[in-house]
Amino acid sequence: MLLEVKGLTHVYMQGTPFEVSALKETNLQIARGSITGIIGQTGSGKSTLVQHFNGLLTPSKGRVFFDGRDIWAGKTLLREVRRRVGLLFQYPEEQLFEDRVYDDVAFGIKNLKLSPAEEAERVKRALKQVNLDYQGVKDRSPFSLSGGEKRRAAMAGVLVMNPELLILDEPTAGLDPRGRREILREIKELHREENLTVVIVSHSMEDIAWLAEDLVVLQDGEIILKGPPEAVFAREERLKEAGLSVPEVNRVLKRLKEAGFDLETGIYTVEEAEEEIWRAVGGKSCEPH
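Above: the chain's sequence. Below: its structure in token form.
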């Protein structure tokens, strides 16, 4: 396992009248090379959980292991973990601040004592990973980019550190449909081409269904469901109790089946639904039997 948490508990404002338990005795494993989706209502503990993965938050109780080592075993190890675990917060474009895209992307590696050529190569590679043209954007103000381009430039600023684990907190929030598709495709390509381990926090069941290989469902600071997307989404009633739903395309398939179409309903992505509907109608007009 690349990352493991054991008995993780986090209490905000502990010992005060405002004490809040955000995580309770949480156990979780993240496999190397996997894409794990974390879902739950606002306040369920999602962001609190992932901020323990690179030591931004200190456990009130429990332990966090990265590559088999307790990340709090020493300051040197914690610094190493923070280089190997990249975390992109929601609306990361709001954290862009340099005059040039190049300088924003390069900010994280300024202390690595790289030569100018090595630094430029790292920046060029990071921009390529998010499908931004190095020559076309390096000297532009990040504030002149489109919303989707700003989000990708911010992601490049994390990727330039060559992380082994990339954590994305609501990576498509606030983007238009085109921007959402671009970001999701790039995440999937990064995972495939770089064998990058990815954890994605999202409210979008559609995004999660398309991207994730494993799902973790949080409610009131506790993991209530874990497993492959098809197994988790099959627990529709339990998801409803947690204030969540299955992807909309699944509900559409169920309505079509109720209308008389011979369809498999255990499908949760648009692409698979299209194939299933086409199979059911045999390429003919969509009329129920």
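Confidence is low (pLDDT under 50) at residues 284-289.
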